[in-house]
Amino acid sequence: MNVSLLPKEPVLLIGGSGVVGTVAAKTLRKLQPELPITIGARDLRKAERVAEQIGGTEVAQIDLERPDLGLSGEKKFSAVSMFIKDKSLHSLKYAQKEGIPYQNISGAAIELSPEIAHFVNHPTSAPILMNSYWLAGTVTLAILSIAREFSSVDSIKIAALLDEQDVGGPAAYDDFKRLSKAGPYALMLKDGKWNWSVDDDRMRQFESVDGMVFQGEAYSAPLDVAGLAVATNAKSIRFDFALGETASRRRGEPFSIETIIEINGEKQNGLFGNFRYEIVHPKGQVPMTALGVAVGLERLLGLVGAPPSVKAGLYFPEMLIEPSYMIQRLKEFGTNISHRIIKKD
């Protein structure tokens, strides 16, 4: 870590006292021990309890109904990271006005236009990381690291199994309900063309890590499909989601989070076939999402990667974060990644 690059102003974590926000703050503190952090929340007492756990952390009361977020004009921050849905986008406008990096993980593919409109009208104001990916970009970056083993990728199928006991805190549950209702049809790439997942394309069966078969439904809330399409040039990509009992809980253990990836293509060694990869965290979705947010903030602040400073712009995580760095951090924070060949030609 280059201490000289650390900003003097704290990173503002809005919703940082929630389930994911708390773990993200702890993760960020572990990655960057000297980085100043402010926990922003409606409930100051709750924020103070989180700040005490982390140490060297301030708190701020946030009001998303106000353009200034309810903050004193004297307070300055080095970045803003959102853990809750901001329907007014006051947080984004605040970051643009201040000229500081902004990261959001609570949006969906069908909700992009307001954020894009703000960027288009103020393109040089601030770097904006649209990190509303599955588990905050960790899975897509892992896929892109894996994809380097391939000379060509024909198709990518992603299946996410979220345990029924792992929906998360109130904010995460509200997001889940909102996105489930708002996006009845998912956008997928099929044979080189973008299509809505209607009729026969809407459902797909997949196997959990222990062979249990689940019925997944095409899911367009995260931005992974769009990002992977550009990054890999695959002709077909889909993302399916299922809510159910994970393999660890069926074994009598605590719930986990399972993401199954199938990549069809040719490897660098000439082997062609369908390859299956399993990404599992034994403690569920929160640690991976928290890590994705923390790594995103590291990069936006220029604390890792090159070039050190991120210019104003609109970014997806794969545009800023080195996939191999994310793989390294995933393993350090307890993620298990395994693979096997399903079929080879």
List the helices and strands and how they pair.
Blueprint: E1 11-14, H1 19-31, E2 37-41, H2 44-54, E3 57-61, E4 79-82, H3 90-98, E5 102-104, H4 112-121, E6 127-130, H5 138-147, E7 150-163, H6 170-182, E8 187-190, E9 193-196, E10 203-207, E11 213-218, H7 224-232, E12 236-244, H8 247-250, E13 257-267, E14 272-281, H9 285-300, E15 313-315, H10 317-320, H11 323-332, E16 336-344
Parallel strand pairs: 1-2, 1-4, 2-3, 4-5, 5-6, 6-15, 7-12
Antiparallel strand pairs: 7-13, 8-9, 10-11, 11-12, 13-14, 14-16
Helix pairs in contact: 1-9, 5-7, 5-11
Question: Can you give keywords for this protein?
Answer:
345 residues, Rossmann fold, Dihydrodipicolinate Reductase, domain 2, seven-stranded parallel β-sheet, seven-stranded mixed β-sheet, 11 helices
